[in-house]
Amino acid sequence: MEDWGINSSTQTKTWYQEQAVLHVSLGNFLFFAILALIMIGVKDQNDRRDSWHHGGWIAKMVI
């Protein structure tokens, strides 16, 4: 079976597991990197963006 240009008959279960870990790690990195960039310049809790950092847990979990 060919999927995404990968011949699955030559790939082991370990390879697929490693790819899954790498994809999840990349997703986590991008999420926190974007959040960090958004937070640049927040000096106190009165800034509207501060609520994005400390709240919105449901939206963060969905993302």
Automatic annotation (TrEMBL):
**What is this entry's stated membrane topology?**
Multi-pass membrane protein
Q: Which InterPro entries match?
A: TDE1/TMS (IPR005016)
Q: What is its main location?
A: membrane
The question of whether DNA damage is a record keyword is answered with no
One GO cellular component term noted in the UniProt record for this chain: membrane
Q: What keywords does the record list, in alphabetical order?
A: Membrane, Transmembrane, Transmembrane helix
User: Where does it live in the cell?
Assistant: Membrane
- Highest taxon of the source? Eukaryota
One matching Pfam family is: Serinc
Where do transmembrane segments lie in this chain? 20-42
Q: Which family does it belong to?
A: Belongs to the TDE1 family.
Name assigned to this protein: Uncharacterized protein
Q: Identify the species of origin.
A: Gossypium stocksii
